Records
---
Amino acid sequence: MTAVLTGIGGFLPPKAVTNDDLSRTLDTSDEWIRTRTGIRARRMVSDGLSTGSLAVEAGARAMRSAGVTGVDAVVVATTSPERLCPAVAPEVASRLGLGTVAAFDLTSACSGFLYGLATAAGLIDSGTADTVLFIGSEAFTTLVNQEDRATAPIFGDGAGAVVLRRGEPDEPGALGPFDLGSDGALADLLAIPAGGSRQRSADAGLGHGTVPTADWYLRMEGRPLYTQAVERMTQSALAVLKRADWPVADVDWFAGHQANLRIVRAVAEELELCEERVAVNIDRVGNTLAASVPLLLNDYAARGALRAGQRVLLSAFGAGLSWGSTVLVWPEIQAEPIN
């Protein structure tokens, strides 16, 4: 038995921020952002919306898609938690009316959806759960310095969710083999220095006022990250295709993490996949980290571009550094259009 995708849902906060909006406060322009990232607009939390509330909305839609009112476990992947403690997943489960089911968070930044899929599949494979609601949810713009032209235009907020059930390995929706990897030696290429135990221990007794303001926000080394992302996603995708015994020519859709349009296209080129088979929605939502891939899948499924029986390759890369890939044959499921 294995984990089978049986429902999907997504949610975006209502506040839309265009490149022109950003250019009013940043030394940037719509053309500068579009040519470097492929992004035209993104959604941002406001009015009290946060990671948990986004997760609840996406999770409810995924459960409706799957036709279920209960699950055995809830897993939330996020790098923008509600609080450092406790995890948000138990609260999400409670707000969804799921009772006292197992619920926990995991953190793997932009690779969170792939790591979370593997974790949720493990719960099912081990017999711990028959059904799992897995949600990637991010309010990451709250951790980005909105005065930093290198990072502020890139990120957006949102949540994407899937329901997995126990099923047969040869049925549509069954998750294929996984390829996961990391390189912690390069962790500082994408990091938020302050807020964790390392900074708190070093500054013990000095107070938060001694920490430079910039340390509370994301730092990114763009050029080396680009190289690493293309190399690692390509290698991971090829590895999982080999394990699944799928020729690249059999892939109908490449659903890569939406970090940067140039990265997605470069990976597709390395894989020798034509542009028509590359799924893209970064132009409208930006980089939503762990929510990126499920939002992309929901988007394409809801408008009929992603159809039952099509072969899908999933791959992501993010902070850690971390990366992962898997494959599946898309099942017959209904997806609600994302707001």
Note: The first strand starts at residue 2 and ends at 11.
---
Amino acid sequence: MLSTEYRGGRFSMARASQFLEVLNDCNLLDMEAKGLRFTWYRNQRGVVLAKRLDRVVCNVAWQAMFPEAYVENLCRVYSDHCPLLLRRDGSRDKSPDRPFRFQAAWATHKDFERIVREAWCRSTPTLVNGLQVVRVDAIKFNKEVFGNILTRKKALQRRLKGVQLQLERGDSESLSRLEKAIQMELDETCLQEEYLWFQKSRE
């Protein structure tokens, strides 16, 4: 909770900091909301208290699955709390074109520079056309090659666990090499996840 989400009464920075720490510890993001600024109202002896008490939070995996989702704070009717409506189908104008967002983690992939270079060389020589071709190829690259970082991380962790369980039963040179290869790929994926979290936090 921020001081801008509070009107009337006394704002506690300590409690707000504790709430933010809980979100960080649980790897959750506040989706924020459209519509009414405050979700709870109360009139105490002529003094109106208003706060944004109700909110929707999600993790990065959910946001990646529903990138166009947003929350609406609806008007109060039967309660001093506003109902929240979660929409997952994009902006209110129902625009068919989803905004393109460059993912910083793409740049860590060994093939991404080549994807951009080839797309740029294939376009007609104008800045707008070049960026459009790069955008199309980047989206295709993300879908067909790069994939979902968190899904890939879980799959690598499962593979690594399986190899290490095999190594517990006995030494194997080939399994040891496979273990190191998976660990290197997992390290790279964790770095990409770090980029993803950082970019999401900036947004």
Note: Residues 3-87 form one domain.
---
Amino acid sequence: MSNGSLEDWLHPGDQGNTQSRKLSFLERLNIAIDVASALQYLHHQCPTPIVHCDLKPSNVLLDNDMTAHVSDFGISRLLSRSTKNSFQNQSSSTAIKGTIGYAAPEYGMSMKVSTHGDIYNYGILLLEMLTGRRPTDEIFKDVLNLHNFCKVALREKVVEIADPIFLYEKEAEQIGNVEASCRNELMNGLEHKIREYTNNLIKITT
């Protein structure tokens, strides 16, 4: 894809890329919606439901319009439906490992997969997009992980854990072109909206 992967944008330095890449809050929100739509299709609209099993930033590709596409179905699994049209866990002859930090905990205890595993992956992906931190970040030790790190930060501290690039997003750059008398008011309104939406997105995963 012309704009690489979400991984390239969230962690450009890790790829040896010196180019400055920034995703605005709105771009991140649109990517999150694109990925959610892809999972909705895989789980509920395919003739045979598909569980991806390894959803992570490097498997989310961005096209020329920054539309997100879920890729790499190397360890995906097909599911059967019950007569009530609900999903059944599907046993696999090989263990599903996924990627450390993203794989659902139950995958380490059994060889059964379900759509719930993808939803867990999606929650971790969403938190990584909001904070700019990997689930394997060195600060996450003992009982601290990305999930409870964000849960504790709900309410007043949510801006403190948000990716600092939010402060330099494209919407703010556009505000810089307006008259000084209106600039502070617009910036305060933008920060309030980002705080509100970030708070709501974190609540989804907790």
Note: The chain has seven helices and six strands.
---
Amino acid sequence: MIELRHAGPEEFAASLDTVIDIYTVAMRPPTDQLTGRQSIMRNHATYPRFTCLVAETTDGVAVGFGYGFHGSPGQWWHDVVRRSLEEREGPATAAAWFENAFEIAEIHVRPEYQGKGVGRRLVHGLCAGRGERTAVMSTHDQPTAARHLYQRLGFVDLIGMYVFPGGYEHYAIVGATLPLQPMP
């Protein structure tokens, strides 16, 4: 059985080694990116209304995590993506999605626990009770299990085949109106 528990910003920052380990086995990024990713995650914990959930086995072994925060001007992802959406769809569309958004920064589950509802529970748990109007995130723009999960939860494509500045991978920027649709 997997249980979800909240981790505050201080606990999250203190457990970054575990978080990075889960991120690494789930995403298999180039090792030279891990130090930068850890720094980004540490910084995210300082953002307004940061919330984190950790998925653990009954004996306390972390098998997944997810976190997000209130998106605000001055945050790199928020500014870059909002500007791109504004250029493509206009200021009204960008405002509708980003004026009062919960930005889901990371959702990762160890491969041996994927496909068992852990990711769905993390997304729902993070979004439950939020005061924001929308939830937004980026995900690889490929037909992955995660991408299908987000679609089933009500996330729609805002921008497809998006490459972040300085990057090379294609992402989909997706958004959903809160509260999320319940899973059948």
Note: The chain is about 40% helix and 30% strand.
